[in-house]
Amino acid sequence: MALKYSRQREVIKAFLCTRKDHPTADVVYMNVRQQYPNISLGTVYRNLTLLSETGEITRLRVGDGVDHFDADTSPHNHFICSDCGCVIDLKMENIDYIQTAAKKEFGGRIDGYCTYFYGLCESCCRKLQS
User: Fold this and answer.
1) Domains of the chain by range and CATH?
2) Does residue 58 contact residue 72 with C-beta atoms inside 8 Å?
3) Per-residue DSSP letters for 70-106?
4) Is the pLDDT score of 1 beyond 60?
5) How confident is the model at residue 2 (pLDDT cuts 50, 70, 90)?
6) Which residues touch 102 (CB under 8 Å, ≥6 apart)?
7) For the segment 15-57, what is each residue's pLDDT rounded down to a tens digit?
8) What is the pLDDT of residue 113?
9) At what angle do helices 25-32 and 41-53 cross, to 10 degrees?
10) What are the backbone dihedrals phi and psi of residue 124, each rounded to the nearest 5 degrees, phi first?
11) Whole-number Å distance between alpha carbons of 55 and 65
12) Which stretch of DSSP H or E encloses residue 127?
């Protein structure tokens, strides 16, 4: 399905491409509003949904009740800080073997996986040591 060009959608995607912190829709809205003061939160939500449904961005549900968005659609894992709630890309070796392990005792079809790691981020660890 070819999407009709939307300047607002392009600005939203461009903003996400500048971020590595996996912002929420509210953070996207607050930042895009600086360039488009009349944009509505509903427009931001609709465009984030459309971009994630077409695979141009990734929607992350990390257990905090709000969706986070990632412009990096390549396969990678995430770390979620259980104190400050930040979501960080984890640079690590390939762990696709877990999909093979999961298939061993499963009669259905596994099409992929999503792995989140939890703990304290570097900044929160430093605060504890202070």
Assistant:
1) 7-70 (1.10.10.10), 77-129 (3.30.1490.190)
2) yes
3) ES--SS-EEEEETTT--EEEE-----THHHHHHHTT-
4) no
5) low
6) 110, 113
7) 999 999 999 999 999 999 999 999 999 999 999 999 999 999 9
8) 85
9) 120
10) -65, -35
11) 22
12) helix 122-129
